[in-house]
Amino acid sequence: MREKVFFLGIVLLGLLLRVWGIGWDSGFHLHPDERMLIMVTERIQFFSQMNPDFFNYGSLPVYLLAGLAQLSDALFQTQFDSYDGLLYFGRGLSTALDMGVVIMVYQIGKYLFKNAVPALLGAFFYAVAFFPIQNSHFFIVDTFLNFFSTLLLLSLLWYRHTPTKWILGLIAFSFAGALTSKVTGIIFTPVIALTLLLPFPAHTNIYERFLAWIARVRNKSFVTPEMIAYLKRVTLHGVLLGSLTVLLTFLFMPYAFIEYDRFMRDILLQVQMNSNPYIFPYTLQYVGTHPYVYYLTHIFKWGLGPLITSFAGIGLVSLGINGIRSIRKSEKRSMELWLPLFLVFLFYLLFFIIIGKSSVKFMRYLLLMYPFFALLAGNGAFQLAQFTNRFFNRNQIRLRISYGVICTIAFLWTLPFLMITTSPNTRVQATQWINENIPQGSVLAVEHWDDRVPMYDPGNYQYEEMTLYDIPDDDRKWELLSEKLDRTDYIIIASNRLYTPLQRLQECGEHGRCYPRTAQYYRSLFSGNGKFVKVAEFTSYPRLHIFGRQITLVDDGADESFTVYDHPKIMIFKKKIPL
Fold first, then answer.
1. Which of 80, 94, 366, 425 could connect to 69 by a Cys-Cys bridge, CB 3.0–4.6 Å?
2. What is the sign, positive or negative, of the torsion defined by CA atoms of 343, 61, 23, 500?
């Protein structure tokens, strides 16, 4: 009963944290991927027009959003099937799916650790980790991929225990769901194949059955009735799984088959982008970043935070030590106990190795790893608390206090980040300031490849677009930009999307693109030595008020995609009046 109460509390807390601040952008559609997906969703009308005409991502999230919104409108006379209505309905879908992940983390933890405490701790860590919370506030395909991939893993574990056709159907459903959310789901194919090929379900004594098999091979009696049954099962289940997956993939994303050439062109362009950060301007931020290390650093600093990440490290080491001890003791049931853990590690390790080496490293690409890190952290916190408790004569009260302190600190780390979603978005603040303080008729210089601020303008201002990404960064480019600046009254820098990467790409001998003149422009602008002076700045850093003091976490150095959507730093510069 106590376990159920704790689990229900974790689910309710996770739901509250994900619903809280779901209207973080005041309905302005400030996330570009979310905005694009909603525009694609508007094209879909069941069942007269089903072609999304867009294959950068999978079609299933779009179909689910369009279908559910249109069904709601038909049944309940709601207004969800509209540009603004789809925004909140889509975020609600992301929230619901991520809550499903919270539940599955608990289920996987119980299956792996055979103990409710590390499972509950793992679910709690995932529920309060800020990065999954942040992405639940966006309608993006990564939340769908995370849900279906986690369901796939849970289905594979269930299949290892009870290899029935019903569970096989669930594997096909979840695999097709992952593939049609984002094609990176194809990475899990080897793990699925291995799960089918493993000869014995997990509840049998694998160790003894394996030794018996080896003996038969040595005696040249390998082909036995048991072996024939195994081959029949693998063949039947393999054909059934493959057929169901193809059928469901077609149902979830039919136009990938109907317009196969277009689909492959869009996918190959995405693959090319991930291997070359110079292709698109908005990926220049990843030039010179290190594979794997960049991701792990941001997970430690911002995604999970130092505490949960440290517990994940402890949990990983603990599992390694216990595994080595089991092997040394030659425990008969060690394979039975450790095979599910091996599948889980292989599942996530394969994904991390392939995605972690990509040249473009948006933090959301590794959202799928967060359930794994939460599971490790749950085990690490459990093992550390148990180890510490041995020094206090196994006092259960102190042990429970330890768990309470651990969970409280983990939540307190997330709390400052939650302030971001409850504060007015900086783009909204800057828009209001501009409309109230900049005279009508003023000329505003805005940067291309970024959302324009002010976001709404009834015609009060004129605009000059600063094409700072253009190359070559030569005299001709800056003659044109200087002419624009001469006509400009105010410069609006709506985020760090341009100035952070372009200031790093100064050396032409080191980079495929270089911007020495642009870097000098930004240095002069920010130092106040040029023709413009900063008159306003808008930030929304993670912050927490404790005992009358404010603790602020300055995340200017975080991955651009961590800040640019819901709390970008905005600066406004005014032309100096000549003396």
1. 80
2. positive
Query: In Å, what is the CA distance from 247 to each residue of 165, 250, 253, 257?
Result: 16, 5, 10, 11
Residue 538 phi/psi, 5° resolution? -130, 120
CB 145 within 8 A of CB 383: no
- Taking Cα atoms as reference points, which of 536, 532, 531, 517 lies closest to residue 479? 517
At 367 the pLDDT is 98
Residue 356: count of CB within 10 angstroms of its CB:
18
Residues ≥6 apart with Cβ < 8 Å to 68:
80, 89, 93
CA distances from 221 to 204, 212, 325, 413 (A): 22, 11, 34, 61
Position 260, amino acid: Y
Residue 304: phi and psi, rounded to 5, are -105, -30
Please tell me the predicted confidence (pLDDT) of residue 392.
Answer: 67
Under DSSP, the state recorded for 11 is H
Which pLDDT value is given to residue 14? Answer: 98
Q: Is the torsion defined by CA of 508, 514, 517, 523 positive or negative? A: negative
Distance CA 561, CA 422 (A): 19
The two beta strands, 443-447 and 462-466, are: parallel
Which has more confidence, 144 or 544? 144
Residue with the two structure tokens 């850093």: 541
More confident residue, 337 or 63: 63
* Rounded percentage of the chain residues whose pLDDT exceeds 70: 93
Largest CA distance in the chain: 100
396 burial via Cβ count (<10 Å: 0-12, 13-18, 19+): exposed
Q: What does the pLDDT read at residue 526?
A: 96
> In this structure, what are the phi and psi dihedrals at residue 454, rounded to the nearest 5 degrees?
-75, 150
Element (H, E) at 446: strand 443-447
Q: What's the rounded Cα separation, in Å, for the pair 532 and 517?
A: 17
Return the HEC string of 128-180. HCHHHHHHHCCCCHHHHHHHHHHHHHHHHHHHHHCCCHHHHHHHHHHHHHHHC
Q: What is the pLDDT of residues 308-341, one digit of tens each?
A: 999 999 999 999 888 777 666 655 555 666 788 9
Name the β-bridge partners of 543: 552
Sorting pLDDT into bands at 50, 70 and 90, what band is 423?
confident
In this predicted structure, which of 64-78, 263-277, 283-297 has the lowest mean pLDDT? 263-277
> Cis bond leading into 416, ω under 30°?
no
Q: How far is CA 37 from CA 56, 140, 394, 563, in A?
A: 10, 8, 54, 20
Per the DSSP assignment, residues forming a β-bridge with 463 are 444
Assess whether the previous peptide bond of 454 is cis (omega < 30° from 0). Answer: yes
Mean pLDDT of 340-362: 95
Question: Would you call 56 exposed, middle or buried from its count of C-beta atoms within 10 A (0-12, 13-18, 19+)?
Answer: middle
